[in-house]
Structure formats: C-alpha cells, structure tokens
C-alpha cells in the first residue's frame, strides 16, 4: 500500500492538478451573466458525426490559456488562489497557495517530457513527478487514475475523430446526443463517451472507461460561453469525479469567470522547468504505481534529465471576460 502520508499529500496534489486544467481564469467574485456570450445555435436537426466533429474540433483553435486569477474549491481543502499558464501540447504551470500573502504552497507543471506536483502541505514538502510515456504505460494508477491529457478534455477542450467513433450517435431521453469513441493508448483502447447538446454542439459530459470497461472519471460541464473570435464555446462550471483504484471517489467543483485565450505574453522557457528540488522529498509516481503491481518497491528517487523543448510560435490572440451567476 502507498504510505498514508504519500496518499494524503498526493490526493491534495491531484486536486490541484485538476484545478490546473479546469480553472484557467477562475475568479472568486460573481457577476451577472451576459447573454451576448451565450453559444449560438449551430444545428436545427441532429447532426451526423462529421458535422458534429467539425464544430467540436474548432477547439483546435485554442492554443493557449492564461490567468492570474484562479480559485479552486473542493470539500476538505481551503479555497486556493493561483496563477495558471497552459499551452499545447502539454505545457502548463500553476503556482499558488491558500492566499496571495502566504506565498507558493504548491507548484504544478508539465512540459513535453514529464509532469510534476510539488506541495508544502502536510508534515514534509514533497514533489511527485512522472514521465508522460512511463505513466501512460501503466494500467493501475494510484490516486490519479487518468492521464493528465484527459484533464484537458475534462475542462471542455475536446476533439472528436469520426474514425474512432464506435457507433452512430444516439439520441438520449433527455434530448442530448451520446457519442462513444475509442482512445488508443500504450495499454489498450480506452472508451470515451461524450454527451453533446445537439443544437449548440456543446459538450455537456465526458466519461472515460479503461480497456477493461471500468469507469475511471467523469466530467459534467455547464454554463457554456462563446468566444466568437475563435468560434468556440467553453464551459464555465465544471464538476469532476475521479475513481481511483482502492480509494473513495474524489469530487471537485469549479466555477470559471473569464479566459484569456491565445494571448501568450512571454516565451521564457523557465516557465516550463521543474522547480528546484532542494528541500523536497522527490517521489516517482511510476515507481509508486509499479510497487502496487509488485514490480518495484516504492522509493524517493532523483529527477531524470531531459531536453527542454522550445516554446511554440504564438497564435492569434483573443481575450474575453465571461460572467457567471
């Protein structure tokens, strides 16, 4: 079993990681909803899979998200304030703490090679990390049962490949379309189910099952707002549940006030560099997962060396303010 200290600290980090992908631009104050930002009607009759994919895949226009006003709320953890950066394909950074006065209590990030979660919460500072390729080759993942890539979909940045759809989209009793597709991985094909509004083509729910059919995670998306410059609609209320093996489900509720899209204001490569490991216990999540499969003993190890990738070319920018009730 994973030591209790590691399990508790990692659960804390896992929720911060969720907040990373799903709360770009979240603010703690509430405003009136602006009807001019409501998603436009795109279909008058239920679309076929190619029509639906064309609209959903406009999310590819989003290359970058940024916000310096982020809040994360989940039961048992005080409200957190943070700054967030995210760029395709896998670059992100989220730093913050209980308040802007207490300094950096956590540092979450990813580059093209690996991701990390560092926290000073708990009895001793701990930094968890994993290389993407190694993490994705493991079936039995403790606490964080999904690849970090899925968390991008959890916030509504979804793409749909018609060639991977397993059956014709079906109309549910509630009027929503249900689309099931395969997601290939190193350990087999995952099954992803999208629940989509047939009139606005907004994704309302994302469900993920592992190759054995076990439910791993779900995300329920609402309060979609439209960004006309990029022709995309993003949810501003996100409810996620993770279902780790051998543990209780983990729930998170996030409200988003505004996004800054494709407005990259800097190209400093240090923003995608791991924090200084001095003072941290460094733990490899791949080894932790492997130890649960009787492959390796759990241990704290040294960070691997990797080549820092160059930042992508900035895209056309759009900055918008979106209000929520």
Question: How does this model look, in words?
Answer:
With 325 residues, the protein is an alpha+beta fold. The chain has one domain (4-321). 14% of the residues lie in helices and 35% in strands. The chain has a nine-stranded mixed β-sheet. A seven-stranded antiparallel β-sheet has the order 7-8-9-10-11-12-13, covered by helices on one side. A hairpin with a 7-residue loop joins strand 12 (232-242) and strand 13. Helix 1 crosses helix 4 (148-154). The longest helix has 19 residues, at 4-22. It is globular and about 60 Å long.
Radius of gyration: 19 Å
DSSP strand count: 16
Structural class label: alpha+beta
Number of domains: 1
User: What percentage of the residues does DSSP assign to strands (E)?
Assistant: 35-45%
Alpha-carbon distance between the two ends: 43 Å
Shape: globular
Biggest sheet details: 9 strands, mixed
Low-confidence stretches: 19-33, 295-325
- What order do the SSEs take from the amino end to the carboxyl end, as H and E? HHEEEEEEHHEEEEEEEEEHE
Q: Describe the strand arrangement of the main beta sheet, using strand numbers.
A: 15-6-5-4-3-2-1-14-16
Tell me roughly what share of residues is in helical segments: 10-25%
Number of helices: 5
Mean pLDDT: 77
């Amino acid at each position: 079993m994973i030591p209790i200290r590691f399990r508790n600290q990692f659960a804390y980090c896992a929720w911060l990681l969720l907040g990373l992908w799903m709360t770009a631009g979240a603010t703690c104050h509430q405003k009136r909803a602006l009807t001019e930002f409501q998603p436009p009607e795109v279909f008058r009759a239920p679309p076929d899979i190619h029509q639906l994919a064309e609209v959903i895949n406009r999310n590819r226009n989003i290359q970058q998200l940024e916000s310096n006003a982020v809040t994360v709320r989940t039961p048992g953890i005080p409200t957190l304030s943070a700054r967030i950066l995210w760029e395709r394909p896998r670059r992100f950074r989220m730093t913050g703490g209980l308040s802007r006065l207490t300094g950096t209590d956590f540092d979450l990030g990813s580059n093209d090679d690996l991701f990390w979660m560092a926290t000073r919460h708990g009895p001793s500072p701990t930094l968890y990390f994993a290389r993407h390729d190694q993490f994705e080759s493991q079936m039995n993942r403790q606490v964080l049962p999904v690849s970090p890539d899925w968390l991008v979909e959890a916030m509504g940045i979804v793409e749909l490949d018609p060639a991977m759809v397993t059956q014709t989209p079906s109309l549910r009793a509630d009027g929503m379309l249900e689309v099931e597709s395969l997601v290939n991985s190193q350990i087999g094909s995952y099954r992803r189910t999208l629940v989509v509004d047939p009139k606005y083509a907004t994704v309302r729910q994302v469900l993920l099952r592992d190759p054995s059919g076990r439910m791993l995670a779900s995300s329920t998306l609402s309060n979609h707002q439209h960004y006309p410059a990029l022709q995309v609609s993003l949810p501003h209320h996100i409810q996620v549940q993770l279902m780790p093996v051998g543990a209780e489900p983990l729930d998170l509720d996030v409200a988003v006030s505004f996004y800054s899209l494709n407005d990259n204001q800097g190209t400093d490569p240090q923003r995608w560099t791991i924090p200084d490991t001095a003072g941290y216990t460094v733990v490899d999540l791949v080894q932790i997962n492997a130890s649960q499969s009787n492959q390796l003993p759990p241990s704290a190890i040294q960070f691997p060396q990797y080549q820092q990738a160059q930042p992508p070319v900035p895209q056309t920018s759009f900055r918008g303010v979106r209000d929520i009730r």
